């Protein structure tokens, strides 16, 4: 098993491995925070909130596989491809966040079909009890703002940061100055 100093050495000498590890860790943190706010905080996600989580669900395995490939010189190009895919996913998630944040600030209309989770309708009695217990969440209302940012606004910044890390891993991973043997 490698020591802590050799693991740190790998991360410092290999920008793709560093970016890949940060993508995996950042995705895990984001998913954990979203689930924490949902389960512990009681915040029910809307349709757009759930769509903004998808890049992070994909980012975790992408980051792990890109990290493994970055450590193998013959497969390092695959880590670059995976980081590029991750960049696209995070930019997509950020774009959805911009759309939702704009709807929350009334810059434009949100989606017409945004609402809470839909369960099986069953019979009329089940439907009535379901309507009483279901909390419909609008994509156009921010349930919480921290420093003026809603969850969607925070996701935009986080997605841009994740995209930046992935692009740095791609660009710095191909730098001739960084790839020379020590």
Identify the overall geometry: elongated
Query: What is the tally of beta strands?
Result: 0
The average pLDDT score comes to: 81
What structural category arises from helix and sheet content?
mainly alpha
Helix count, DSSP H or I runs of 4 or more residues: 7
Low-confidence stretches: 177-182
Major beta sheet, specifics?
Answer: none
Spatial gap, N to C terminus: 23 Å
How many separate domains?
Answer: 1
Which strand-content bin applies to the residues? under 5%
Order of helices and strands: HHHHHHH
Q: Give the helix level as a range of percent.
A: 55-70%
Q: What Rg do the Cα atoms give?
A: 20 Å
Question: What features would you describe in this structure?
Answer:
With about 180 residues, the protein is mainly alpha-helical. The protein has one domain. About 70% of the residues lie in helices and about 0% in strands. It has seven helices and no strands. It has helices at about 5-15, 15-40, 45-70, 75-105, 125-135, 150-175, 175-180. α1 crosses α2 (about 15-40), α2 runs parallel beside α4 (about 75-105) and α3 (about 45-70) runs antiparallel to α4 (about 75-105).
Short description:
The chain has 182 residues and is an all-alpha fold. It contains 7 helices and no strands. It has one domain (10-179).
């Amino acid at each position: 098993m490698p020591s802590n100093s050799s693991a740190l050495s790998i991360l410092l000498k290999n920008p793709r491995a560093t970016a890949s590890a940060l993508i995996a860790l950042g995705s895990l943190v984001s998913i954990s925070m979203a689930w924490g706010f949902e389960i512990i905080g009681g915040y029910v996600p809307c349709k757009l909130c759930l769509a903004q989580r998808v890049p992070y669900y994909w980012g975790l395995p992408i980051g792990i596989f890109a990290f493994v490939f970055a450590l193998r010189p013959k497969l390092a190009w695959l880590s670059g491809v995976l980081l590029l895919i991750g960049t696209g996913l995070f930019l997509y998630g950020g774009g959805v966040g911009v759309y939702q944040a704009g709807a929350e600030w009334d810059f434009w209309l949100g989606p017409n079909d945004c609402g809470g989770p839909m369960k099986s309708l069953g019979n009329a009695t089940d439907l009535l009890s379901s309507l009483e217990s279901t909390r419909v969440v609008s994509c156009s209302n921010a349930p919480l703002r921290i420093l003026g940012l809603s969850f969607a606004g925070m996701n935009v910044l986080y997605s841009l940061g994740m995209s930046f890390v992935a692009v740095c891993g791609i660009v710095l991973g191909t730098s001739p100055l960084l790839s020379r043997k020590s």
